[in-house]
Design brief:
single chain, alpha+beta, nine-stranded antiparallel sheet, seven-stranded antiparallel sheet, 41 strands, 14% strand
Length: 1373
């Protein structure tokens, strides 16, 4: 059996994986470990024998370039991109061929002009897009930052040269002449006294006036410039530079913090450009560098140190480095580093040293290069062009061989036109080859040169249609939807998988919580229930940011203050309660509950210097909501003073002070967070452990007793979880001093252990978190952006699979899935966990496939080793079995086989292992998709951490809201809200794919009609490759006669109206299944063209040659009957395109007939041009053409016969086998006033089954149960659940299951939330030193029918609307 050599296969694989951008990208590799020297020289080992720095020690500049082209690379790179299209290569070959006299038709310059126009227009479009990127790059690179200068300071570290982009190449030379030595000064850090005036700043913040700065900067009698800060461009910042960033400035590079303006050396940053989080994060200075607080300190040679750093890495949550200063060595982690792209907030200034610049920074490492994406339709066009080229080659070969045979046979017979055909340059063999080459020119239109430029133009217009769609404009910001890549519009109509970020993409600011305290639930007063007068005051004062009487402003991310009249009354009565009275116990519970809320967190309290109002900055909106709720009830967290927490309560007239001793941090395994505090009060100095976490871990650690409170709390937790809320349980305990001292020693031993530190710390944590007293619980809705659940539900109905990536813990991710409609009420959740405990990930994946997809064929021999591993054979407590967890009787015996399908949830650790090798990847793909890899994907996100995902997907969408522009700048489409994705895909994407696919197919068709006529003519011209009609008609075939109808399809055709596509997401399957552009349809259109060319040529030919068409009896000329063929062919091509158009509007009418009109006008004028102007072969043809009866007979006859097959097929399809789209178009045409969406919803229970929206306990959380939010472009009345908060509907636990594959436990899910995200950077302060880091084709519902005679299955979703045979009329009626 024939086998392909391995070397060939390797070369083919390399060719398939080749990316054009790799030719123009600098491959810096992974980088090396680096040591940055400050105030000391670099070692001699950094230099080569000639004293030049070695390449590995030369760091990249801080210049960041996202543009694709430079002034040098634009022409070659753009031409290479365009010549990836086979058609362009072919036409370049044809144009070059016609420069040789043997093959010339008309002027060679005129021949190559169309190709140059096509290449030029595309290049201008690409250049314009890239100019916008250059402008954005220049804006960033020319931002200013303060850099240390003077005082003898020099930066010994080596930095490479900057790239000269298009802008720099033009501007920099002129600027350098004006600025003299300024550039050198910036690079070396050695200033002159000709510095720019206002760019100089002392530590006191004084800007030097013009011409006077030198006096102020001099030191003593020596003309030495004093150390100071000088503003420099971002792109001029170097590794090892000291920089000073002031409040509200962006960070120019990855900077190690030396000192800050705060007393405790804390800095606050906003990371929305990185992760979409708008909440502030705290960062701390390195302890060994905290004394470097001025420029003079930084420039002092005595303050020498060096920083050992890891190589540049893409992990945005990890950085390992070490600072060595003298004999002191101090570790550096990400908590001490400000990353490029973040913004300094609420901190006057920060001084730091630059560790990574430019391409080595975290944000750029995650960005990657700007990819050159091509749409699937464009990629599929290349094989079709190859087919046409193969047909062309075959046609040319037939002509060449036939010409050779004819000349070889007739030359010996003495044919006069072959006289002299026996020379080396003129013989049958040479002439056959020339005929072959000339045939390539004759039939070149089989590959339309105008195809690509037409598609480019149409896609540009489609991008404008998206831009001007006012239903996709954010009403708040006025931002429209923007297409940044014009060539991917048809991919929007074929999406099969969506990968989405969560934070900032699906979610937004949280909502006020529900509180369960001592058996009583406080739901909070809804705004509609408030006193109208108070509501009006709140509106007038913009209550979203106005502080209440408590002096606490509304936190960012919290929509409203928490108010509850009943709770306020209970607090008032508790304050006045006498010791020993009935209210005393309730008072203690209220005080304890709110004290835990106000103290057990990582929230920052920021005091407004003008008003004195407190505003909370939290990493999680939920944490902000809980602390805000406590403050709104009078328990005001006043901030921290180093390790002292300050709390103001209604029970005390003075501010209570607590010493923060330890933070027992959250992990997904612990599912809880605790703090240990000591009350600083002379009368009460007790130690408290305050804990909050999941009810499952809190309840098992409670002290015995209090069963009544536990049962009440569990009941309310069930109610909360049943309505889709995320719950949190609060508890506390008093710790004896001696017990704490003994525990603290064990804790110190654990955190300093070098072996199994995490396990030992967890064991110590678990020791102290026992014998807790229950206080209550909270419940918070995961607040989503407008329209997110409805959009996701409709996208799922469209058959699109959605994956959401989130940094949350696994339980929170599941809760998000429920609230966003990703997980339906009756879905079966398959959980895959990573980590060192439980089953290995491969075991979990295999077991899940065996348990839930036993009929799948993916478990073959490839996965046998994974399924029969040693671990699996051993008897472990994690074997797949039912555990006695008390939920078996609840979930039922058919658990795992629910009608809601399956949902795969995989945590980060497991995902990392599952993607570690090809075998695991294939296994994960089998379980997660049950499909192959050749799918169309879309990624959507809003932060810099989403850039890689956006660039890797076929289509990248960026959310351009309040979360920064990093994702938008790297995306193909920019939208303001997630809900706009529905119309972008279901309407614009579907329209664009249907239009473009149909347009390209009609393009090939209309050219094959023309080529077919020319081909049949070869039979009668000795296969000489001669033209059947005048060359100008062929030249203008694709330019004027037939171009307008296909453009009309691409611009104005509509498969169905937008409101119908929005109302019936199931229709998207036509695009997802690639209905509109396939090889089968291509062959059908090509066959249509060949068949239609037969009557177009032979009917006209035999009509004219049967008897002469002239009244004078002379024979007809070639141009006389061939012009009739041109008229018939062009008219058939235009009308055929019209038959394939679904909606005939005025624009479509004009597009179909304008080419025909132009053809008539051109012929009349062209045939009338006298030789006095210029000589043509058709002068006077009007006299014979239009007077001929054959002309007027052949036109209607050939047109009717040619179009008859397609017309009959369309008539049969519409009348007897209509599809969903045909039925919907027919209804809209006959009943335009009918609300089709409402009419086709057949039964209420079906309507409810089509959504997985969860019921909410209050109107503020209600969402429409309908899938479509608009019909006909206007809002419609939808059924909304306004269930009372006091009577929430619990979840039916028998409907859904959750299987944890790592343990084998099956249970019912009950979500919970926590303050911080695991894996992120915890918000804590350096001075505390309290703890260590560780860290379908689904269709519309049909009416139920009884079984009947088996019929062929139909793909139609509107089978109930088929035309039925009318009933027999009643004779009596």
């Amino acid at each position: 059996m024939f086998s392909i050599p391995s070397s060939w296969a390797t070369c083919w694989e390399k060719l398939q994986n080749f990316k054009l951008e790799s030719l123009f990208a600098r491959n810096r590799g992974r980088g090396t470990l680096r040591t940055i020297y400050i105030n000391q020289d670099v070692p001699n080992s950094y230099l080569d024998a000639k004293g030049r720095p070695k390449k590995e020690y030369v760091y990249c500049t801080n210049q960041v370039i996202t543009s694709k082209y430079t002034i040098i690379t634009f022409l070659p790179r753009n031409l290479l991109e365009q010549f990836r299209r086979i058609a362009n290569i072919f036409f370049a070959f044809i144009a070059i061929l016609q420069f040789f006299p043997q093959f010339a038709t008309i002027s060679p310059g005129l021949v190559i002009l169309p190709l140059l126009i096509v290449l030029g227009i595309t290049a201008v479009k690409d250049g314009y897009e890239d100019i916008k990127r250059h402008q954005s790059d220049r804006h960033v690179n020319h931002s200013r930052v303060r850099v240390l200068t003077g005082g003898g300071w020099t930066n010994p570290n080596f930095t490479g040269g900057k790239s000269r982009t298009f802008v720099r190449g033009i501007v920099s030379k002129a600027r350098s002449k004006r600025q003299g030595v300024h550039k050198a000064d910036v690079e070396t850090g050695t200033p002159t006294d000709a510095e720019r005036d206002t760019d100089v700043e002392l530590d006191e913040g004084i800007s030097m006036p013009n011409g006077k700065h030198h006096h102020h900067l001099s030191s003593g009698d020596h003309d030495v410039v004093r150390a100071h800060w000088k503003k420099a461009l971002w792109e001029d910042v170097r590794v090892g530079d000291f920089v000073k960033i002031v409040n509200n400035e962006s960070i120019p590079a990855d900077v190690l913090i030396c000192a800050t303006s705060e007393e405790d050396n804390v800095a606050y940053v906003e990371t929305k450009n990185l992760d979409g989080e708008t909440n502030l994060k705290s960062r701390n200075a390195s302890p060994v560098l905290a004394d470097l607080r001025t420029a003079a300190d930084c420039a002092n040679k005595l303050d020498a140190f060096h920083v050992d750093c890891e190589r540049p890495d893409t992990n945005m949550y990890k950085l390992d480095a070490t600072v060595s200063r003298g004999s002191d060595r101090s570790p550096v982690d990400l908590q001490m580093v400000l990353l490029r792209g973040t913004v300094l907030r609420n901190t006057d200034w920060v001084i730091g040293v630059v560790l990574f610049t430019g391409e080595d920074t975290k944000i750029v490492q995650n960005s990657g290069g700007t990819p050159s994406k091509r749409s699937r339709v464009e990629r599929q066009t290349n094989p079709q062009v190859f087919i046409n080229l193969a047909i062309l080659a075959a046609m040319a070969t037939v002509c060449g061989i036939a010409d050779y045979k004819i000349e070889s046979r007739l030359y010996p017979e003495g044919a006069p036109w072959l006289y002299g055909d026996d020379t080396s340059g003129d013989n049958p063999g040479i002439n056959g080859f020339i005929t072959w080459a000339f045939a390539l020119i004759t039939f070149q239109n089989i590959v339309p040169i105008s195809l690509y430029i037409s598609v480019e133009g149409v896609k540009t217009c489609q991008a404008l249609f998206i831009y001007f769609d006012y239903e996709m404009v954010d009403k708040k910001t006025g931002q429209p939807t923007l297409a940044r890549s014009y060539n991917l519009s048809d991919d929007l109509g074929q999406i099969e998988y969506i990968f989405s970020d969560k934070t900032g993409t699906l979610t937004e600011a949280g909502s006020p919580p529900f509180l369960h305290i001592w058996g009583v639930v406080y739901y909070g007063d809804r705004e509609s229930e408030l006193d109208p007068e108070a509501q009006q005051i709140g509106d007038d004062n913009n209550g979203a940011s106005t502080p209440l009487a408590t002096g606490v402003k509304l936190s960012s991310g919290v929509p409203e203050h928490f108010k509850d009249k009943q709770l306020s009354q209970d607090l008032a009565s508790a304050i006045d309660a006498e010791p020993g009275s009935d209210n005393a116990a309730h008072a203690r519970s209220l005080n304890g509950f709110f004290s835990v809320l106000a103290l057990c967190h990582t929230v920052l309290a920021v005091v407004d210097p003008h008003t004195g109002a407190i505003e909370y900055k939290a990493q999680s909106p939920d944490e902000a909501a809980l602390v805000q709720a406590a403050a709104d009830m009078g328990f005001i967290f006043c901030g921290r003073d180093k390790d002292v927490l300050k709390l103001k309560t209604p029970f005390s007239t003075e501010v209570e002070r607590y010493q923060l001793l330890n933070i027992l941090e959250f992990t997904s395994a612990r599912k809880r967070m605790s703090v240990i505090v000591r009350k600083l009060d002379e009368a009460d100095s007790r130690l408290f452990l305050l804990t909050k976490g999941a009810d499952s871990v809190i309840f098992e650690r409670l002290k015995a007793g209090g069963d009544e409170l536990k049962q009440a709390t569990e009941q309310h937790l069930d109610d909360f979880a049943g309505t889709g809320l995320r719950t949190l349980t609060l508890a506390y305990k008093v710790i004896p001093d001696d017990e704490y001292e003994a525990w603290r020693e064990r804790y110190q031993d654990a955190v300093t252990s070098l072996e199994d530190r995490g396990g030992k710390v967890e064991a110590v944590y678990n020791e102290i978190e026992q014998e807790l007293r229950l206080l209550g619980a909270t419940a918070i809705e995961d607040r989503l952006q407008d329209g997110v659940p409805e959009t996701i539900a409709d996208l799922k109905l469209a058959g699109i699979k959605i994956w959401v990536a989130t940094g949350d813990k696994l339980e929170t991710a599941i809760a998000i899935g429920h609230s966003t409609n990703l997980i339906a009420d009756d879905s079966n959740i398959i959980v895959i966990r990573g980590g060192d405990w439980g089953r290995p990930v491969s075991e979990q994946l295999v077991q899940a496939l065996e348990d839930f997809f036993p009929g799948s064929d993916v478990l073959k021999d490839d996965f046998a080793p994974l399924g029969t591993s040693q671990y699996r054979e051993s008897q472990t407590p994690y074997a797949m079995r039912r555990l006695s967890t008390g939920v078996t009787s609840l979930v039922g015996e058919d658990n795992g086989r629910r009608p809601g399908g399956y949902v795969l949830v995989i945590d980060g650790a497991a995902l990392g292992q599952a993607l570690s090798d090809d075998q695991h990847k294939k296994l994960l793909l089998s379980l997660g998709t049950q499909t192959g890899c050749t799918t169309m994907t879309l990624a959507i996100g809003d932060g810099a951490n989403d850039v890689s995902m956006i660039q890797a997907a076929d289509v990248g969408v960026g959310i351009r809201g309040e979360e920064g522009l990093q994702a938008v700048n790297s995306s193909d489409y920019a939208i303001a809200q997630f809900r706009f994705l529905k119309k972008l895909l279901l309407v614009h994407g579907h329209w664009s794919y249907a239009r473009n696919g149909t347009m390209i197919l009609n393009f090939f068709y209309k050219n094959i009609v023309c080529i077919g006529v020319l081909w049949w003519f070869q039979i009668y011209c000795g296969w000489s490759s001669a033209y059947a009609f005048d060359y100008t008609y062929l030249l203008f075939w694709n330019s004027f006669w037939t171009i307008a109808p296909v453009l009309g399809i691409g611009l104005f055709d509509r498969i169905v109206d937008a409101d119908i596509l929005m109302a019936f997401p199931e229709l998207y399957r036509y695009g997802r299944e690639q209905t509109w552009f396939t090889m089968k349809s291509f062959c059908g259109y090509m066959l249509d063209g060949v068949v239609q060319s037969v009557p177009l040529y032979f009917l006209v030919t035999y009509a004219y040659f049967t008897t002469t068409a002239r009244s004078d009896g002379y024979d007809i000329a070639l141009d006389e009957y061939s012009t009739t063929m041109v008229f018939a062919s062009a008219t058939v091509a235009c009308l055929y395109n019209g038959l394939n158009t679904n909606v005939w509007t005025a624009w479509v009418f004009g597009a179909v007939f304008i080419g025909i009109v132009l053809l008539w006008l051109f012929t009349v004028v062209y045939n009338s041009i006298s030789p006095g102007w210029f000589v043509t072969d058709v002068y006077g043809n009007n006299h014979f053409l239009f007077r001929s009866a054959y002309f007027w007979l052949c036109l209607p006859l050939t047109i009717a016969i040619s179009l008859l097959p397609r017309y009959l097929y369309r008539a049969w399809q519409l009348g007897y086998a209509p599809g969903d789209l045909e039925i919907l178009r027919y209804i809209r045409k006959k009943r335009p006033e009918l609300d089709i969406a409402k009419a086709c919803r057949l039964a209420p229970h079906h309507q409810q089954s089509r959504t997985s929206s969860r019921r909410r306990p209050s109107s503020r959380m209600s969402r429409p149960l309908s899938l479509a939010s608009t019909v006909g472009g206007t809002p419609t009345d939808r059924s909304v659940d306004h269930a009372s908060a006091d009577h929430p509907k619990p979840q039916d636990v028998r409907r859904a299951s959750r299987t944890d594959m790592s343990t084998g436990v099956r249970s019912v899910d009950r979500g919970f939330d926590f303050a911080t995200e695991e894996g992120g950077v915890a918000m804590r302060r350096i001075q505390t030193n309290l703890s260590e880091r560780w860290q379908s084709n689904r269709h519309l519902p049909l009416p139920e029918t009884e079984p009947s005679v088996k019929k062929k299955s139909s793909m139609r979703i509107f089978s109930s609307l088929r035309r039925k045979k009318p009933p027999t009329p009643n004779k009596d009626s």
